[in-house]
């Protein structure tokens, strides 16, 4: 698995550079008249993440590539605003961003706040533990009374509360902070999207993903817009359908995997 991840990175790096630099050119402070503002939480590779390119801090990933495609289809310039995941829908409601793409599942509670597009991808639950503890924590029950981490405001908090109720949930805003807590022994497991978990496995033999049979009521990942913004939602749905049906969304993911930075 690790060799495949790295080999894919080498094959697709050039193509990913083209995509990511296009997104980079639109990361400016403030929006112009012909711009559209994306809200995201760029700490969730390969969906959205930061990387230094030619001395510039660039936000890229498969979600960012989708946002760029949405902007291009609308004839607009993309502006990216990075913030904590749990602030995204607040900022969307306040009108400081026009749409949100951040590996977000359209839960029933979120649907009360905002409107969602058709799904552009479907997610899987991954659970990371320290490799040395794989035999120590073979089941969900073995983690009872232990601290586990999930991202604040994510549907993984709900999964932890419902399917790992015997464990103590530690909610953290940033994924790298969750990994650090795991590596330093402050938590015993971390819940995240399986694709994101694979990225960390590719970088460290000290982590292992365990299949605990956790399931997600999978309505997929979707784009959020302000409640009632049907015109924008219609335009986004057209792009989502095109990228999903043509296989372009899978190409976005492959390119993002190739570009994902190694964690320190």
Structure report:
With 264 residues, the protein is α/β, with parallel strands linked by helices. Helices cover 40% and strands 20% of the residues. It contains 9 helices and 12 strands. A 5-stranded mixed beta sheet has the order 4-1-5-12-6, with helices on both faces. The longest helix is centred in the first third of the chain and has 23 residues, at 2-24.
Order of helices and strands: HEEEHEHEHEEEHEHEHEEHH
Rg, Å, rounded: 18 Å
Low-confidence stretches: 1-32
Overall 3D form: globular
Strand arrangement, largest sheet?
4-1-5-12-6
Explain briefly what this protein structure is.
The protein has 264 residues and is an alpha/beta fold.
Could you give the topology of this structure?
Blueprint: H1 2-24, E1 35-40, E2 49-53, E3 56-60, H2 62-73, E4 77-82, H3 88-94, E5 99-100, H4 108-113, E6 114-116, E7 125-130, E8 147-151, H5 155-163, E9 168-172, H6 175-183, E10 189-193, H7 194-203, E11 207-209, E12 224-226, H8 230-246, H9 248-259
Parallel strand pairs: 1-4, 1-5, 8-9, 8-10
Antiparallel strand pairs: 2-3, 5-12, 6-12, 7-10, 7-11
Helix pairs in contact: 1-7, 1-9, 2-8, 2-9
Task: List its salient traits.
264 residues; 9 helices; alpha/beta; globular
